[in-house]
Write a structure and sequence with these properties.
By secondary structure, the protein is α+β, with helices and mostly antiparallel strands. It contains three helices and four strands. Bound molecules: zinc ion.
């Protein structure tokens, strides 16, 4: 079984630079938990900001909804 990788993509609201992270589900849950908003840190200006999980990582959001459906 291959481990699925999730791509989190976002743009900093302060300096506008965009960045992406690729993580496994375990890493995602460990770092961000299972919340609708995830906390990211800009690599350029070090601003910490919240991103909407749905727009930052639609794949992960889909999977969370599937899990909810399954109980
Ligand atoms: Zn920034």
């Amino acid at each position: 079984m291959t481990k699925k990788r999730y791509r989190i993509q976002s743009a900093c609201p302060q300096c506008g630079c965009s960045f992406a992270q690729v993580m496994s589900k375990e890493e995602l849950l460990e770092k961000h938990g299972d919340t609708p908003n995830i906390e990211l840190e800009c690599g350029e200006c070090m601003l910490k900001f919240q991103a909407d999980r749905k727009s930052a990582c639609p794949e992960w959001d889909d999977e969370c909804r599937l899990n909810e459906k399954n109980g």
